[in-house]
Specification:
single chain; 125 residues; 0% strand; flat
Length: 125
Amino acid sequence: MYASDTRSDTPFRNVRNYVLITLFVAVFGAVYEHFSFGVYSYFMLYAWMVPFVMGVLPSVFLACSKKHVAIRDAGRRLWHDAVAVLTLGSLFTGVVQIYGTQSAWSYVYALIGIVFAVLAFIYRK
């Protein structure tokens, strides 16, 4: 195979990890909203979509592609960071909205996540 397949960051492991993260976030959001006395937030309700769309789908594509796609470590790490920041930002915004307030940190999470995603595209090769 490829020398990069021996690393811990292979596409198949990414698929598994992102599926587990997606399931955890979905269960966390469901449990949190169950105990929120009928108050809900779309950010909390759909927080699982961030690791699914930005993590599972690209990882499945890379794992199933016949052509080996080389992505630099910096780009890969920045992409993982972008997924983490956007997921946590969505959960944070959901908690704040369920609580009934607003926070400027929601915008900071979104901005940092988008910056990481853009930098990941810049440093991918």
